[in-house]
Amino acid sequence: MSNRVRRDKEDGRKGWAMVFVVVSLFCIIFFAARGRFQAPVSSQAVSLVLSPFQQATDWVANEIRYVTSVVWEVSTLYEQNKMLRNEVEQLRGINLQANEALAENERLRTMIGYQHSARQFDLVAARVIGRESETWSSMIVIDRGTLNGIQNDMPVVTPQGLVGRVVEAGPNSSKVQLILDPRSSVGTIVQRAESRVTGIVQGDMDNPTMPQMVNIPKNADVVEGDVIVTSGFGGIYPKGIIVGLVSSLKNDDGGLLKIGVLESAVDFQKLEDVMVITASREAPPEPIKPPVQTPGTETDPVTGERIADQKAEGQK
Fold first, then answer.
1. What is the pLDDT of residue 33?
2. Where is this region: Disordered (predicted)?
3. How much is the pTM?
4. E-state strands within the chain
5. CATH number where 203 lies
6. What is the pLDDT of residues 96-132, one digit of tens each?
7. Residues 316, 314: Cα–Cα separation, whole Å
8. What range does the domain containing 212 cover?
């Protein structure tokens, strides 16, 4: 019984399918024949029947076109974005190189200006290529050596001030002991004309970034803000190179002397380029200007005699 009911349902479905096919063919034939004969009623019927299909077809076509355009735009934007990212990376690299070149150019311009102003020195420019970071030692390595005329104990400077001295000169590179090294010793003097107090500048293990000026008498005329320069004593460092400023003063352990803590003129954390003094000459003295003489009391600059007396002697 169940099989018979099932077959009846299947036959009913097949019948409805045949009816749908026949109606569809009928509609298609009439739709194709609309241009051959006049059949207003049939044409309206065909249009009425096919209208839902046409709307569905148009909607599907519009959606396909929309999706296609969106996919194309997304693909185009992706490619453009990729190209723009590459251009941004290239421009960023060019910008970094330009900034580095600008900074290097500024440093070299400053060094060249110092070479022109410090004519009493023969200078060899060098670049810092290494650094020793031990707390008890402050050393840098430069890219100049004996092949460039560098020798041990030659002073090393920048336009800002004193850096240190060469302690180990190799053929193509050299080690430089900074004034921050506790083992260093630089003879110095207070630049202020009213003071001219001398002392020794050396590194401080407890404060590696700020050297100290020691052996200052307790009652010496040294105050905060004084400029400290090399004294020329010892034969290594020429006289007059700035070392730093007195940041603070304190008494030593014995209480008989005081110590000046210095803010170094050179920023050793940013040290990239230096100059080695290969020869030093004393700066030529300024020409002596004769004092203004009172009328009637002028003297001959050669003989030293009064001009008025010379004239009187000539008249006799």
1. 52
2. 279-316
3. 0.61
4. 121-132, 139-142, 155-158, 161-169, 174-178, 186-190, 198-202, 212-217, 227-230, 242-251, 257-264, 273-280
5. 2.40.10.340
6. 777 777 777 777 788 888 888 888 899 999 999 998 7
7. 5
8. 121-280
